[in-house]
Design brief:
The protein is an alpha+beta fold and 501 residues long. It has 21 helices and 11 strands. The strands form 4 sheets. A 4-stranded mixed β-sheet has the order 1-2-7-4. Helix 7 runs antiparallel to helix 8, helix 12 packs across helix 15 and helix 15 runs parallel beside helix 21. This is Cytochrome P450 4B1. GO terms for molecular function: heme binding; iron ion binding; monooxygenase activity; oxidoreductase activity, acting on paired donors, with incorporation or reduction of molecular oxygen.
Amino acid sequence: MDTTLQIVSAIVIGYVLWVVIPALWRYRALCRMLKNYASPGPLHPLWGHIKCFDDDYSVTSTYDKLAATSQSKMAAVWLAFKPLIQAVHPDTAKIILQSSDPKPTGRGHQYNVLQSFIGEGLSTSNGSKWLRNRKLLTPAFHFDILRPYVKVYNEVADILLNKYAAKMATGANSIDITKDIGLATLDTILRCALSYEGNIQEQEDHPYPKTIHRISELIIKRFLIPWHLMSWNLYMLSAAGKDYKRCIDYVHGFAEKIIAKRRRELADDPSLLTNKKRMDFLDILMTAKDKSGAGLTDEEIRDEVDTFMFAGHDTSYSALIWALYHMGKYPEEQEAVYREVCDVTGDRQYVEWEDLAKLQKTTMFLKENLRLYTPAATTTRLLTKPMELEGHTFPAGTAIGVNFAVLHRNPEVYDDPKEFRPERFLPENAAKRSPFAFIPFAAGPRNCIGQNFTMNEQKVILSRIVKRFKVVLDEDHVVLDVPRLVIEPRYGIKVRLEERQ
């Protein structure tokens, strides 16, 4: 018995000496290293900065504090005892984004949480799998594929504008624009990516956008509860975990039904692809082959469909609702965009492919909108080798991120960063800044593959709205931006839409 006790004691002491104490020493060194990094507020001894990201605070105000208090080009946000180390300046962002380091998918990391939702699609996969799939999917975003989508954007806008007109015709002083924009961007992605015609915009209570919204809300709340973040099994025991599982099962099932239907159609008539006027995203996924002749599995196809459905719908939704908010808040800028749209399109109702490059003021407006309300605020890499940033060497195994939202509000990068000034993106002004000063779609080898798709969609839909309606902000309605997977208004955004003569 004494011998057994001695052996157990020796193992415990050895573990403490060789594992626990070195880990605590490294943690202490990390804390000292991060001491002078920017933070969003006072550091709670147990919760860190978690309270700065709940639904009672404006998330953009939190980002403003991070940007304004930075004593370096890095920031540290503590979720309980776990620091999120992030670049908040173009110089440090460039080093991280140009590296080939993978995204962290281990327990407790953001991409581990996302994988239960969108699987191992382009946003979350790493290494050879990511490289293979990126090459296979790149043709889906060629200009020849994107060009016909402009007609789809216009058809989606037709329905949206008529819905807005009908709601204003009831005599309402103002209407909440958010739900209808969400249905419109979902309609767009379903038509363009999956050739799905389901009258989505006519279904006010369609479960897909509501479910995506709930998933986004649950993921953020999970990040703010450390024991839920670290343990999937513990999370599944909670009411939130059960709700989350129900939501992702619905989203996965939605995609699987569309994929199965397309497989049946192709099996019944293999000539469908050759007879189609255009191949959509799903066609390309199903027919893509790598150098060895292997295609994507059903699970890989579903992961990419889920990824593109979420990224293509939710980010465009966020960008457009905040663009309309800024239209109402800054009527002079709205008038400048309106005049340009009228000059470019003339008497035509539809915006055409050739018009997109001519809508320069509109593009600057949308870029300034994305600077202030960057839909996806951060990205993270897991270092495979030591990296030096701001005089500190971070060892391999450290998770290092870039906070686009804070970088875009950094007073060292933009004068008066809280002011809305589209002229920042005049060519002569943009040329004075680093290419990494404006990165709403990330940068480097893992930049957003669908950025041209969403920018074209935003230009068409915003142009169509502003040409038909004058947007007037409801000043009595409280707009509180809160953190989700994209930045969303907790209470919606209300505007009055006045028909132009």
